Amino acid sequence: MLCTPGKLNEHLHEIDITASERRERIVGQMMTTQGVTEQMKADDAMKWVGMVNNIRACADEIIRDELIYE
User: How far apart are CA 41 and CA 34, in angstroms?
Assistant: First the structure.
């Protein structure tokens, strides 16, 4: 039971670590798939920022669906 002293915080910490690792993986995979590179960043920084922000938002939504709200 999560109400046991320390169990809830321990569980939340594990979820946080898992979510962070999963987010890094998803963002990396999506950046590769969509061709978001350091060269793009140098050539068109605004486009790069927009794409990275979109990728991060999508990754966050996936994490919420898979880990938080399951």
Answer: 13
d(CA 21, CA 34): 20
Continuous segment of H or E residues that includes residue 4: none
| Six-digit token string for 45 | 């920084």
d(CA 9, CA 54): 31
Q: What is the DSSP letter of 5?
A: T
Q: pLDDT by residue (tens digit) across 13-68? A: 999 999 999 999 999 999 999 999 999 999 999 999 999 999 999 999 999 999 87
- pTM: predicted TM-score of the whole model, two decimal places: 0.83
Using an 8 Å Cβ cutoff, are 36 and 52 in contact?
yes
- SS3 category, 14: helix
